[in-house]
Fold this sequence. Notes:
The chain is of the alpha/beta class. The protein has 13 helices and eleven strands. The protein has two domains: 221 residues, Alpha-Beta Barrel (TIM Barrel), CATH 3.20.20; 87 residues, no CATH class. Helices cover 36% and strands 14% of the residues. One of its GO terms (biological process) is response to toxic substance. It holds the Pfam family NMO.
Amino acid sequence: MFDPRDLRLPVVQAPLAGGPATPELVAAVSGAGGLGFLAAGYRTADEVAARIAQVRAGTTEPFGINVFVPRPIPDPAGADRYRAELAAEAERYGVALPDPDPTDTDDWDAKLRLLLDDPVPVVSFTFGPPPPWVVDALLAVGTYVVATVTTRAEARGAAALGVSALCVQGPEAGGHRGTFDPAADPDPTPLLPLLGAVRAVTHLPLIAAGGLATGRDVAGALAAGAVAAQAGTAYLRAPEAGTSAPYRAALADPAFTTTVVTRAFTGRPARGLRNRFIDAHDATAPAAYPLLHQLTRPLRAAAAAAADPHGLSLWAGTGHRHATAAPAADTTRALATG
């Protein structure tokens, strides 16, 4: 079975749901000696299966799949109010807003069947603890199981399920925070103290995540007790990444100076470059994932088509200024040379 302590380079590429984590990116990172991750989030099981096949065609090294755990929607009524608020955005971009689907589980059952029928080396979970039977079933087919945690209490609960390792995600991370409670405000404890707090309650291997963008960052995470460091934003400008052109441009644009945590695009807390959309809607966005993700999807697609970064969810961690356009293998090696 895979073990992150056996990686040639102690670097994990974050799953980067929504398009950036292409099979080519995953294969490049794994081929360089790190661990590449495909994102199952926002894709059907059939799409995930096709992308797994592409990764296998590109590398014989281990890789992982990240799966979102469905959770209750704290404020579904809030999505209706938010839909009315977004009418002006729909007019701005010339699109129609969909009717949100509260039954959406991101094809959870079908993805689990896929991963049990055609096992991959590593499966990680975000947004909550996987059910105990899922952990047991994946372990039984030889898959290494990772749970994403953001607090010591979450770590203790996930460890009790028998997972193989924990991905400890600090508040510096770009994109969604993996908090178990979708209504809760994310824990503000910085990554390095959080690693120490988690290490105090479990001896499981820890993968550190959160704003890690340089070799020095990675070295600090390893010194704090992690066996590997997970980086996402560092890969967004890589030629292998599926990052859209306006998103790439914004990451290098000195006009975007700040990252903030917001529910404005999806209803779950996520860190991204501060832009017009966040300024306009952050204060009123309800805790209603995935309904807000569904509502803003056509707006984001239209903004991308118009090359308008101010209508995009520009997910980025606190170390985003260090992201370069270097090939993914070079970035992986650079992160490992701290």
